[in-house]
Amino acid sequence: MDFKRVKDYFSWLYYQYQIISCCAVLEPWEQSMFNTILLTIVAMVVYTAYVFIPIHIRLAWEFFSKMCGYHSTISN
């Protein structure tokens, strides 16, 4: 892929985002506020998933391994 096609693809994705989220009808300061809030929410969800999903997977593994009689070798 050449650089122009990648740039055009990202431009198209950004245009689709603006159309779907109705950002195209907002004023520039409203767009920046909306994008900032959305980016903050997405960052918090990703961080929370990164921190808590491994803990829950480990706890579920320990629970089901004890239930099935399998002794886990996972160290705490």
TrEMBL record:
InterPro entries in UniProt: Ser_palmitoyltrfase_ssu-like
Q: Which Pfam families match?
A: SPT_ssu-like
**What GO terms fall under cellular component here?**
endoplasmic reticulum membrane; serine palmitoyltransferase complex
Q: Where are the transmembrane segments?
A: 35-57
Biological process annotations from GO: ceramide biosynthetic process; endoplasmic reticulum organization; sphingosine biosynthetic process
- Main localization (coarse): endoplasmic reticulum
* Membrane topology category: Multi-pass membrane protein
What GO molecular functions are on record for this protein?
serine C-palmitoyltransferase activity
Pathway recorded for this protein:
Lipid metabolism; sphingolipid metabolism; Sphingolipid metabolism
**Which keywords accompany this UniProt record?**
Endoplasmic reticulum, Lipid metabolism, Membrane, Sphingolipid metabolism, Transferase, Transmembrane, Transmembrane helix
Cellular compartment(s): Endoplasmic reticulum membrane
Chain's role: Component of the serine palmitoyltransferase multisubunit enzyme (SPT) that catalyzes the initial and rate-limiting step in sphingolipid biosynthesis by condensing L-serine and activated acyl-CoA (most commonly palmitoyl-CoA) to form long-chain bases. The SPT complex is composed of SPTLC1, SPTLC2 or SPTLC3 and SPTSSA or SPTSSB. Within this complex, the heterodimer consisting of SPTLC1 and SPTLC2/SPTLC3 forms the catalytic core. Within the SPT complex, SPTSSB stimulates the catalytic activity and plays a role in substrate specificity.
Q: How does it assemble?
A: Component of the serine palmitoyltransferase (SPT) complex, which is composed of SPTLC1, SPTLC2 or SPTLC3 and SPTSSA or SPTSSB. The heterodimer consisting of SPTLC1 and SPTLC2/SPTLC3 forms the catalytic core of the enzyme, while SPTSSA or SPTSSB subunits determine substrate specificity. SPT also interacts with ORMDL proteins, especially ORMDL3, which negatively regulate SPT activity in the presence of ceramides.
Q: Which family does it belong to?
A: Belongs to the SPTSS family. SPTSSB subfamily.
Q: What protein name applies here?
A: Serine palmitoyltransferase small subunit B
Q: Which organism is it from?
A: Neovison vison
